[in-house]
Amino acid sequence: MWENSLERLKVLNYEQDYCKKLGKKPLNRVHFVIPGANAGNQFDEFMGICAWVVPFITADPNTLKFEQFDDPNTKLNKLLLVLRNLDFRASFAAQKL
Which own/partner pairs from 11-18 qualify as long-range (CB within 8 Å, at least 24 positions apart)? Predict the structure, then answer.
């Protein structure tokens, strides 16, 4: 599943528009599949990708914005609120992210 998601990100030109712009390395196909050395960094990378992708879905660049000092729970709640507004129903607890 992640491999398909990675290909979809490539279609959105994420390597140029996200990675290079922000000085990040492109993700590999197992990046979020196995626990990383630093779970906090993995979480921040995931939320960064979400914040970059959501405006493509909503056509509103201000849909998912994080503040510099937002804690992880605040970020999760903002993401879940956006997903609920898009009629997505999570079948897992927010803490599992």
Answer: 12/53, 12/56, 14/49, 14/52, 17/52, 18/48, 18/49, 18/52
Is residue 64 a contact partner of residue 51, using CB atoms and an 8 Å limit? yes
Q: How far apart are CA 78 and CA 93, in angstroms?
A: 14
Alpha-carbon span 78 to 65, nearest angstrom:
8
User: Can you count the helices (H) and strands (E) in the chain?
Assistant: 5, 0
Rounded CA-CA distance 48/42 in Å is 10
- Is this structure's pTM higher than 0.85? no
> Measured between alpha carbons, how far is 6 from 16 in angstroms, rounded to an integer?
14
> What is the predicted pLDDT for the residue at 3?
58
Report how far residue 92's alpha carbon sits from residue 8's, in angstroms, rounded to the nearest whole number.
23
